[in-house]
Design a protein that fits this description.
GO terms for molecular function: zinc ion binding. Keywords: Metal-binding, Zinc, Zinc-finger. Residues 4-39 form the HIT-type domain. This protein is mainly alpha-helical. The chain has two domains: 1-36, no CATH class; 52-139, de novo design (two linked rop proteins) (Up-down Bundle). Helices cover 64% and strands 3% of the residues. Strands 1-2 form a two-stranded antiparallel ribbon. A hairpin with a 6-residue loop joins strand 1 and strand 2. Helix 4 (77-91) packs antiparallel against helix 6 (101-115). The chain is elongated. It starts with 13 loop residues before the first strand and ends with a helix.
């Protein structure tokens, strides 16, 4: 049994769509004690880690995107094609018939492995691209 988060007496039957507080009646929902305080707390809790993570990712990707070798390789249509296929495998469940994202990532990883040296679809440009990306990311450690 969940107790009303506003009056703390009755059993709650509903949940506020804005702040997710449990409440028992319209009287509690519309009363002065229901202030949506949790909304502001949740926003601050959610935004801070996202901003930090975004800054980290931007820094990592900036290094890759500003690298002259990466820029040069990305001009090749064949590399663009192979990278777009890998992204489609990850983002479009209809391509693989797999609804679970982790499984699609595994399929994309297998595709990338096949495109690298020694793989059944070996592509030198893909191998060079992956090696360069790994090298640049490894420099940050």
């Amino acid at each position: 049994m969940v107790i009303c988060g506003i009056c703390n007496v009755n059993e709650s039957k509903y949940k506020c769509p804005k702040c997710s507080v449990n409440y028992c009646s319209i009287v509690c929902f519309k009363g002065p004690a229901h202030t949506h305080v949790n909304i502001e707390e949740n926003k601050t809790k959610r935004e801070d880690p996202i901003v930090i993570l975004k800054d980290e990712l931007v820094g990592k990707f900036d290094k890759l995107l500003n690298d002259s070798e990466i820029q040069s390789m990305l001009k090749y249509k064949s590399l663009q094609f192979h990278l777009s296929v890998i992204l489609k495998i990850i983002n479009d469940p209809s391509i693989t018939g797999e609804s679970v994202l982790e499984n699609r990532k595994e399929i994309a990883n297998l595709k990338l492995t096949n495109l690298r040296s020694g793989g059944s679809e070996q592509n030198e440009l893909v191998e060079d691209f992956v090696e360069r990306v790994l090298f640049l990311l490894d420099e940050d450690r």
